């Protein structure tokens, strides 16, 4: 298995700052907007974006975490059951502009599950998608991100792995791995 670094710490920081600026451009002061990180891996990115936004705006930005486990279309097809995470959305979704945040967009199935799961908590006024890494090839559903850190041309046998210091890694990195 080959592993290649495709984004390191400094490039990752520049990318996060750019994404935060794009969000401010489209959502203003975030008074009627919020971030929702998809459990488990989108939460780290959402927390980083929240910090960048608050640093820039000088005010609190709404952040929630959404568990999509029981809304996945492969939930009952796996040999081992998926471990559920906790949903924590400490604000009303009704009428809010919501930015769903996930680390990697590949088939689009996680995003579809997130849309279903989110509707159990209310009806947002608008929903957008932000992803750090967009795998351009391999989409199963017609889902695209409104905000993308970086797009990569990959094949099915490859994976994109995002590592954060909050997970115990030495530094923030994004890797492309080949299983062949």
TrEMBL record:
Query: Which InterPro entries does the UniProt record give?
Result: PRTase-like, PRTase_dom, PyrR_bifunctional
- State if Cell inner membrane is listed as a keyword: no
The GO molecular function terms of this record are:
glycosyltransferase activity
Signal sequence interval, chain numbering: none
Ordered alphabetically, the record's keywords are: Glycosyltransferase, Transferase
Q: Where is the Phosphoribosyltransferase domain?
A: 16-152
Instruction: State the name under which the record lists this protein.
Output: Bifunctional pyrimidine operon regulatory protein/uracil phosphoribosyltransferase
Instruction: List the top taxonomic levels of the source.
Output: Bacteria, Pseudomonadati, Bacteroidota, Cytophagia, Cytophagales
